[in-house]
Every structure is written in C-alpha cells, then in structure tokens.
Here is the input.
Amino acid sequence: MWPAKSVPRLLLVNRFAVLDVEEVNTDICESIDASSLSFSILDRTTQPQKPKWEKRLPKQLSVNTLDACGMSIILLIEVSTTDTSEVHSVKVLLDSRAIGNFIDRDFVCTKGINTWSISCPILVYNVDGSSNKAGQISEVVDVVLRYRTHSERTLLAVSSLRRQNVILGYTWLKDHNPEVNWQTGEVQMN
Here is the structure.
C-alpha cells in the first residue's frame, strides 16, 4: 500500500453521498398486466434471426431461361458442393438480363445436391416482369464454382430453369467483370 503521505488527498475523501432508497409501491406493480406490455420475450422468439449467408440474399430475383438462338455465352464449369465435396461438370449460361445466380431444381435432384431452406422465400420474376411459374425461391445450394484458374464459393438459388442447369446473372457479371470475346465465345476472368 502507499504511505499516507504519497496518496493524493482526493483519493482519501469519499465525495459521493449514498443514494436514498425509495420504497416500491407494490400496488402499482400488481396492477400491470403482462399482456399489455408492448414487447415481450415471445416476440423475439417467434422471429428467428437469419444466418449471415441468408441476409445477403436479395428480396426478389429476375430469371431468363432462354438462349436466344445461340446468342448467349455458355461456359463449361465445375460445381463442387461444400458439404460433400462432390464435383459436377455443368454448362452455365451467362445472362446479363437475369438478376441473381440460379441452379435448376431437376439438376439438383438428379445429382443429389443438398439444399438449404431459407426463412423468407424470395419472389422471382421473368424478364418481362411477370411472376415466374416455378414460384418463389425457398432453397439455395452452397457450392464452389471453378472455371479455369478462377474459383469462388457462392450461393445459387434453386428454381426450375428448364433449358439451363446454372445461370450466372448480372450481379455475378458486375462483380467479376469478365472479358468476353463474342466471336470465339472465350471468357477471361479479371
């Protein structure tokens, strides 16, 4: 301990008074009905917290399943599942009119790829603005896409694509900004 001479005077004096304790009126507490409170623990438990990966998903998507007379770029890539590490070769349509990245429901079922359910289904529209007949997106797959030397982990929305197995849309193209040679169909990743 410090000798009394070396301790500053302010530390030796308690400058704070003890707070007065008021008696609680129990009549008021008993008259409050718990159901009249504007919040409760039940409200928090009925709305589960979304995992981080689900918070990144958009509230609506736009899909286009047409390959307009061969005027689209189709790549051969590998899709590797993150949970089982199964690898599948798949043709991918690059489509700047689609908003989001998609995988065909039939392809997922045929290959036995595991899906993740999402708590809030995502609305899906066609390029013309009409609602997609396949309905809302309620599942996604977590995969690693590999194209030449490029690889990335991504979530693909599971939908009925009919003619395509995977569609990478505008958001993917904007993020990666690949160099496309439209004459040869070659795609170089930046």
Summary: Strands lie at 60-63, 73-81, 87-94, 101-104, 116-126, 137-147, 150-159, 166-168, 179-181, 186-188. Confidence is low (pLDDT under 50) at residues 24-45, 65-69. Residues 56-188 form a domain with the Cathepsin D, subunit A; domain 1 fold (CATH 2.40.70.10).
